[in-house]
Amino acid sequence: MKVKDAMHKGVDWVNPDTPITEIAKLMREHDIGCIPIGEDDKLIGMVTDRDIVCKGLAGNGFDAGRAQARDVMTEGIHCCREDDDLAKAVHHMETLQVRRLPVINKSKRLVGMISLGDISHSTSGDLLAGCVKSVAAHH
Q1: Is 133 exposed, middle or buried, given 0-12, 13-18 or 19+ CB atoms closer than 10 A?
Q2: Taking the CA of residue 33 as centre, how many other CA atoms within 13 Å lie in the half-sphere pointing to its CB?
Q3: Can you tell me the distance from the alpha carbon of 133 to that of 79, in angstroms, rounded to the nearest whole number?
Q4: Between the chain's N and C termini, which has fewer beta carbons within 10 Å?
Q5: DSSP-derived secondary structure for the chain
Q6: Which part of the chain is the CBS domain (predicted)?
Q7: Which residues are CB-neighbours of 44 under 8 A, at least 6 positions away?
Q8: Whether the predicted pLDDT of 135 surpasses 80
Q9: What is the pLDDT of residues 13-34, one digit of tens each?
Q10: Are 96 and 78 in contact (CB under 8 A)?
Q11: Contact status, residue 49 vs residue 33, Cβ threshold 8 Å
Q12: Is the entire prediction scored with pTM above 0.85?
């Protein structure tokens, strides 16, 4: 199975100046846990619900009314290609200990997101179990 057969299609990204409050509303509205961050037509990072809490709200002097994506985002981006085998993407997630990966096409354009939930609906229990064990390990 290919990543494109399991992923969520049509993912949008926001720029690093986007207010955290707007990002949180997008997460709630779309029932998602992360938002890719892009600048100059290039993905540069990711904001997860955990980033907002741990790097933002739990930090000293954090002002949620003024905070932007750049203040809490995890910089750098790891992704997979839509034509990758799903097992390869799962292995990549295990290695990185991440629950989600952006998916790009041959033109390096964001076309979707693959998550543990997507994998759970699309693959064998053995592949999923290994991924969950690695991703859920304390790090």
Answers
A1: exposed
A2: 11
A3: 20
A4: C
A5: -BGGGTSEE----B-TTSBHHHHHHHHHHHT-SEEEEEETTEEEEEEEHHHIIIIIITSTT--TTT-BHHHHPEES---EETTSBHHHHHHHHHHHT-SEEEEE-TT--EEEEEEHHHHHHHS-HHHHHHHHHHHHS--
A6: 7-64, 73-130
A7: 16, 37, 38, 73, 75, 76, 77
A8: no
A9: 999 999 999 999 999 999 888 9
A10: yes
A11: yes
A12: no
Distance CA 47, CA 49 (A): 7
Which residue do the tokens 């619900």 mark? 49
Q: Which amino acid is at 26?
A: L
Count of positions (residues) in the chain: 139
- Which among 75, 77, 72, 76 has a CA at the least distance from the CA of 19? 72
Give residue 101's pLDDT band: very low, low, confident or very high (50, 70, 90).
very high
Using alpha carbons, select from 80, 56, 67 the residue that is nearest to residue 4: 80
